[in-house]
User: Fold this.
Amino acid sequence: MTRTELLERFSQSAETAGAAMVTVDSAEAVAAYVAARVSGPVLLPAFASGERLKLKEALEKEGLFVITEPHRADVLNAAAGVTGVNFAIADTGSLVLDSTAEEVRLATTFPPQHFALLDPDKILADGLAAVPPMRELHRRDGRNFVAYITGPSRTADIERVLTIGVHGPKQLHILLVSGLSSDPLEM
Amino acid sequence: MSKQRAKSYRKKIDGALATPKLQEALHRFGDAYLVSREKAFSGLDFQELRGNISAMKKQACIDREQLQQQFIDQATAAGATVYRAATADDANRYIADLAVKKAAKLVVKSKSMVSEEIHLNHALADSGVRALETDLGEWIVQLAGQRPSHMVMPAIHMFKEEVAELFGRQTGKEEPAEIEHLVEVARNFLRNSYLEAEIGVTGANIAVAETGGIALVTNEGNARLASTVPKVHVVLMGTEKIVPTLEDAARIVQVLPKNATGQLLTSYTTWIRGAVPCEGGDKELHIVMLDNGRSELAESEHCKDALNCIRCGACANVCPVYQTVGGHVFGHIYIGAIGIILTAFYHGLDNAAELVKACIGCRSCVAICPSQIDLEEIILHLRETIGDKEGIGTGKALVFRKVMQNRKLFHTLIRAASKLQKPVTRGERTIRHLPLFFSPLTEWRTLPAVADTALRDCFDKQEQKLAKPRYRVALFGGCANDFLYPELGLDLIQVMNALNVEVFYPKGQNCCGIPASYSGDKETSVELARQNITAMLEENPDFVLTTCPTCAVALKQNFAEYLKDSPEWVDRAKVLAEKTVDASSFILEYLDGADLFKAAAKKEKVTYHDSCHLKRGIGVSTQPRQLLQSAGLDLVEMAHADRCCGFGGSYSLTSHPEISAKILADKVTDISNSGANTVAMDCPGCMMQIRGGLDKADVQVRARHTVEILAEVLRNKNIQA
Assistant:
């Protein structure tokens, strides 16, 4: 599949899974998108592409209260988590986040909204194509917590009716940012 | 013991059958599931995918010692503590001791069937530790004081009103029975628990030997919280979850959600290896690897494939028995077809003894299993084991061993029965009412009377004038064709003769042996296999035709399997298997005979019922449809065409008539809704069941064997000519 085809497939699957998708071109645009949807503290764990983008500054410029080293005390009041993405998987519309750093886990589990920044060039075809970078992550680090995230949290446990947002984020926003990062090993 | 067991089991069946709301919910889910599943697999080759998983899991079972060691080494190197628990008690003790050592008051759990298997919550409670289920369905079931009725959807048997009441008791106020609201109540109520709990317990969908890590396949996000927030993480997993590599794990992840609920992928697939960072330090990760019968299962030649299960629950989703009685009846802790087998090994044969008989043998689970487990074969084997241990009952033993094995006696008794039934048949072909304690048998369907003259006694009177027959074929009639529906055999002669094929009826043929095998009497089925091989091959026919797909399965598959260790028989069994073909396939594919019937039928709407053993036993479903269509009949598909009619031989007569009646009622509804005037099928057993059901329900639809319809077409053609 070509890059365009991969992006098309990914967008289709991710939207079917209930994710919102938007293409943005700058830190300011990311911050504006987040600020338009969030009122409350934002958890922003450290990640390489976000730092290059000077995301914290951009978010703060929009008047958001940004917590970069979230602790347990912060999580229940946080309105959103903002993270990068290591890479994505086209056929299921999934985001792969190396979540070994605890801050990434806290930012993507507790808050009701998750904003994820993805470079559209980092989309792989399927779960099997994801194995080589997964293996690299396991080689690089001695301990791992890697999350495949596909749409928002969901349940169908009451009368099999699909209901969004049970224990995890109720909204997943995927922000496509070109030129963010080409390395699947970094977020 | 076993009498009391059977009695309490009957009571549970009656209870479930008296809950139509449950059946409706399970039926609705079953329908929706098939639609989303098909969509999820579109563009993928399910047979290839499951072939890969099956081959990988089989090899992993052979290499299990080495893989377990590799997993332990890798996990330990990443900072985990691995404990091998031989029994449920060992696992419970380890986790309870750990909780006490950590002075834990609260343990948050995400969904784990293994924790249900070992009753972990009870063990923790005994040590003064509260276990809180955080998966929505599990929490509901925990609040209700019940156990899950489905492995993937634990609370599938409950309704929002019941959930609202349970939640209201927790929150101390009335909660409206609106699903979205109830989900929000669970979110808010459980949120603080993750922060309060000292320990998080999760299961593992997969464990990877290569990395020493586990994968959790979930939707709600509670497993991510339970494995992230508390200082201690306990992974409770069965030893069979270990696969060699990340590629193998990826192949399971690809199939599991699609086959479980029809999702492309669950919201979260979480890969955890080792003691990850936690509150400025390292998390304490304990992996409890449970055996509890798994080694014994791995050593069982007939049953070990059950370890290939990836716990998708699909075998229950498509099971007509499960859809009728639910998982609290058709299951112990593990439910559905796989549950029967796992119960036998993890919870003892006694707990599985009744469940083993509850399988109707329709093979829908076999067709949908992502690990290609022949669940029905394993269940039959367990039935034999229990039959050997507890006996198959004196009545059955008498019928099978003393009567059926002696063909002449068996057939003499059936002929006598045809005379004795006169008072109830009043000279008609059907029995509408039986007296005394037999009456339940005819309350919900009429039964066919034993024919005055059996097929074997009238076959040779039918003249066959063929100068140079293309083939000379033997008919294996089977008991129903022989003694209940001899006219079907005569119709077959007519159709075959019209295609220039001569048919003869070997008189030494006996029952195919499946009824005995289904009742756990292997000895009789092996003896009958020998008798039938001798009889059918005696005159060296070009082919052996069947009109009953259950007999076809016996001749084409079972005989060679029964006799595989018997050198003097196995080759002949294989010759018979090669020569055996069902009538419809023979006409269409071997004789290329569809043109004979072309557009000769009277215009009418026909619907087709796929018999379990025809479609899923010998893989025939399009052939009869093609014949009916080429004859000019208007084929309309009914809903659930390949769902069992509920016959299952002795299942409907003696072992589970109540369940059979309900499954039949579903079939009658589907037939009736199709708008057809005739329902065609290729099985005299289904014909007996469906005719009886249509008759009692007063639905004006004819039930006919495809061969009978083709003979009718020929007669119609002759009249026109």
